[in-house]
């Protein structure tokens, strides 16, 4: 499957979810800022907790964000705090992509987000629908190559629109 360029992470995630086969769908950044070998821990937590969503969270251990520059860390801490305040403390990690989903549950959702905020949309909907959730510690590192496509101003605006949509629905 090939998507047209610049459709955004939201479109890519929705297309991947639709095309995926199997009981589980794992998502992680292509730049490997979360280590793929940590996926084993997500699967173990899913099985142990009969979870529908397992989040790899850099917020569970003190040093799991230490490799990340404060200019990237601060917006993430603030946004995740906002989502926790509005949607509950059942998750510490609303915005990171590093997750494992029960495929059938993920496909139940009608997702609308276009950018990086799709991760928060899924998490907030999962919390509000009382999915079985689990989190495992996952260190967030720095990219070894390439350049981020994240535009801070655009993503903040998208999060504000998402929050309005979620809170008004």
Q: How would you describe what is shown here?
A:
The chain is α+β, with helices and mostly antiparallel strands. The protein has a single domain (9-168), classed as Spore Coat Polysaccharide Biosynthesis Protein SpsA, Chain A (Alpha-Beta Complex). 44% of the residues lie in helices and 11% in strands. It has 6 helices and 4 strands. A 4-stranded mixed sheet has the order 1-3-2-4, sandwiched between helices. The radius of gyration is 15 Å and the shape is globular. The mean pLDDT is 92.
Spell out the blueprint of helices and strands.
Layout: H1 9-19, E1 24-27, H2 39-49, E2 53-57, H3 70-87, E3 99-102, H4 103-108, H5 118-128, E4 133-137, H6 152-168
Parallel strand pairs: 2-4
Antiparallel strand pairs: 1-3, 2-3
Helix pairs in contact: 5-6
Q: Tell me, what's the shape? A: globular
Number of helices: 6
The side-by-side strand order for the widest beta sheet comes to 1-3-2-4
For the record, the count of structural domains works out to: 1
**CATH architecture field:** Alpha-Beta Complex
Structural class by secondary-structure content: alpha+beta
N-to-C SSE string, H for helix and E for strand: HEHEHEHHEH
Q: Which CATH class is shown?
A: Alpha Beta
Indicate the multimeric state.
single chain
CATH superfamily: Spore Coat Polysaccharide Biosynthesis Protein SpsA, Chain A
The CATH topology is given as: Spore Coat Polysaccharide Biosynthesis Protein SpsA, Chain A
Instruction: Give the fraction of residues assigned to helices.
Output: 40-55%
Span of the ends, CA to CA: 33 Å
Instruction: Give the mean pLDDT.
Output: 92
Low-confidence stretches: none
Number of strands: 4
């Amino acid at each position: 499957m090939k998507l047209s360029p610049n459709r955004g992470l939201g479109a890519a995630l929705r297309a991947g979810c639709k095309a995926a086969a199997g009981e589980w769908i794992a998502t992680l950044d292509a730049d490997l800022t979360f280590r793929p070998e940590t996926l084993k821990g997500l699967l173990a937590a899913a099985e142990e907790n009969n979870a529908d969503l397992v989040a790899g969270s850099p917020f569970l251990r003190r040093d799991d964000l230490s490799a990340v520059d404060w200019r990237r860390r601060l917006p993430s801490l603030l946004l995740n705090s906002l989502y926790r305040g509005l949607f509950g403390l059942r998750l510490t990690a609303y915005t990171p992509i590093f997750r494992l989903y029960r495929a059938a549950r993920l496909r139940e959702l009608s997702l609308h987000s276009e950018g990086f905020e799709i991760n928060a949309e899924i998490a907030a909907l999962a919390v509000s629908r009382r999915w079985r959730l689990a989190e495992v510690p996952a260190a967030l590192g720095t990219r070894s190559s390439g350049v981020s496509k994240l535009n801070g101003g655009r993503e903040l605006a998208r999060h504000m629109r998402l929050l309005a949509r979620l809170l008004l629905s």
